[in-house]
Design a protein that fits this description.
Elements lengths: L16 H14 L10 H6 L8 E5 L5 E5 L44 E3 L5 E4 L29 H5 L24 H15 L21 H8 L8 H13 L7 E6 L7 H16 L3 E6 L19 H4 L3 H4 L14 E2 L6 E3 L14 H14 L2 E6 L6 H8 L3 E7 L2 H17 L1 H8 L2 E5 L7 H11 L5 E5 L17 H15 L10
Parallel strand pairs: 5-9, 5-10, 6-8, 6-9, 10-11, 11-12
Antiparallel strand pairs: 1-2, 3-4, 7-8
Helix pairs in contact: 6-15, 7-15, 10-11, 12-13
Length: 513
């Protein structure tokens, strides 16, 4: 085997057996030993004597073991020929008498430390170490019982004033009525909870934008510019119209009954009923019913579109029980009402070709008819008759949620409406409340009439009703079937305002009469 000799002056650095022998000799020479040539690693391990100590070393050429004693210092060797050298004596530490003459006795019931030589003799006690001596896991030192801990303060003493440990002089009142928890962490948590309860509630801002989207102008010159691509805000009049449309488009919880009344014939009750029904149905959608409650040849059926049948209220009355049964379907009602294809509401006609005595409606009959109407329609607009003493008229007032006084600029019509409101006021209770919440709709019936004339009649009703609305003259309302689309724009806008005024009283149902 060829040895690698990178540096002849330092053989201990060679990676060969010769380098190992040189290293061992170098260490032995430095510590006063003899230079010997160690054997192989296996010879050193299996030839070492065992005296119960911890050794590591080399086997000498003559068969002896040259151990390194672990507790004799790094690199210190003891050479022998097969025998273990005696252990060196441990130096005994003997302090001066004056240094420990006044040393206190051992504390905590532990004996004072002493040093012992190999002959078993005891020497003077050693000073206490800086840290506690190691204790075997299976034997813990006996600890002498110390003094009993001082008892904590009682609730009385805890709240009593005094210089004790930072307790408050007066007890702290907590919202929950419980004392604060002991301990720094629990006390801090309780303090934070108290601060949160006493702090004003903060409401965070909502992330979604709930504001109504701004729609550009659609009417007038602003609407023309908006149609060309310029985003123009609507005018004040257009904003007012949008508010009215929003008012009549609402749906209220539960059905509502609107009664259009005036004790004088020809006071424009039927056109008022038709127009209000058309505005509510066209804007709010849903089932809306116009009901002719006139027993003396009512004209509601004549002024509206007829369906594929000629049924009237007298045909519906015998079938109220079937329509109120749980298995009844809403489509069955189409046999008795007449749908208005353009204005989207239904009409329950009276039978004008027979005498009033042949179509008497009692209070019980009206209740049954009203129950059917309330089941299938969200809004019921009742065109009343002229007989204020009839049972059907009185029962209509009992079910009314919003009262509407229809009149024209004719003095007799206006006076009849005013007298009706005053009569309801005199009856008091729910009747007086119904009259005070009434809406008066004044229609111009004279082609040559003036606006001042209409305003004069409306002002006369202001002390008696909640709101008054004026309707300009329109030839489409004078005769024939009435269609909302056939009216002039000014008349349509006026009826929209009238319906919005009526809708303001439908938020809450009227009190029971």
């Amino acid at each position: 085997m060829t040895e690698n000799t990178p540096d002849p002056d330092y053989p201990e650095n060679w990676p060969t057996r010769r380098g190992l022998r040189a290293t061992t000799a170098h260490r032995s020479a430095e510590h006063g030993g003899t230079v010997t040539e160690p054997s192989t690693f296996a010879d050193r391990i299996f030839s070492a004597p065992d005296d119960g100590g911890s050794f590591a070393g080399d086997l000498s050429p003559d068969g002896g073991f040259a151990p390194y004693r672990a507790d004799a210092g790094l690199g210190q060797e003891y050479r022998t020929s097969g025998s273990v050298p005696p252990l060196p004596p441990v130096p005994v530490f003997e302090p001066a008498p004056s240094e420990f003459a006044d040393a206190p006795a051992a504390e905590d019931g532990l004996p004072a430390e002493t040093s012992a030589d190999y002959s078993g003799s005891r020497s003077a006690p050693l000073p206490a170490p800086d840290r506690a001596p190691a204790v075997a896991p299976d034997r813990a030192p006996a600890v002498a019982p110390g003094p009993a801990p001082e008892p904590g303060p009682t609730p009385e003493s805890a709240t009593a004033p005094g210089p004790s440990r930072g307790y408050p002089a007066e007890p702290v009142q907590h919202p929950s009525g419980q004392a604060p928890a002991n301990g720094t962490a629990a006390g801090a948590a309780s303090s934070r909870a108290d601060l949160r309860e006493r702090a004003p509630a903060r409401r965070r801002a909502s992330f979604p934008d709930t504001q109504t989207a701004r729609i550009p102008a659609t009417r007038g010159f602003r609407g023309v510019l908006a149609g060309l691509g310029l985003r123009m805000s609507p005018s004040e009049s257009e904003l007012a119209e949008r508010r009215d449309i929003r008012a009549v488009s609402q749906h209220w919880p539960g059905p509502r009954t609107i009664s259009v009344v005036n004790g004088k014939g020809g006071a424009n009750k039927t056109p008022t009923t038709v127009m209000l029904a058309a505005v509510f149905a066209r804007n709010g959608g849903g089932p809306v019913l116009a009901w002719d409650n006139n027993e003396t040849r009512g004209t509601l059926g004549w002024r509206t579109e007829q369906g594929p049948h000629d049924a009237t209220v007298m045909d519906l009355l015998p079938n109220t029980g079937n329509l109120l049964s749980p298995s009844a379907q809403s489509a069955l009602l189409a046999r008795f009402v007449h749908h208005q294809t353009e204005d989207k509401f239904d009409v329950l006609r009276s039978k004008p070709d027979v005498l009033a005595s042949e179509q008497k409606i009692t209070m019980a009959d009206f209740d049954a008819l009203h129950e059917v109407a309330s089941k299938y329609f969200r809004l019921n607009l009742v065109d009343s008759g002229n007989d204020e003493s009839a049972e059907r008229w009185l029962r209509m007032i009992h079910h009314t949620d919003q009262l509407v006084i229809a009149t024209t600029t004719v003095e007799e019509h206006a006076e009849a409406g005013a007298l009706l409101l005053e009569a309801l006021q005199e009856r008091g209770g729910a009747f007086a409340q119904l009259a005070a919440n009434a809406v008066v709709i004044v229609s111009q019936s004279d082609r040559n009439g003036t606006d001042a004339q209409v305003r004069s009649v409306a002002q006369g009703f202001e002390p008696l009703a909640r709101a008054t609305v004026t309707i300009p003259y329109d030839a489409a309302l004078r005769k024939g079937q009435i269609r909302f689309g056939s009216l002039r724009p000014a008349t349509q806008r006026a009826w929209l305002a009238a319906a919005a005024a009526v809708a303001e009283g439908l938020s809450e149902p009227a009190p029971v009469l």
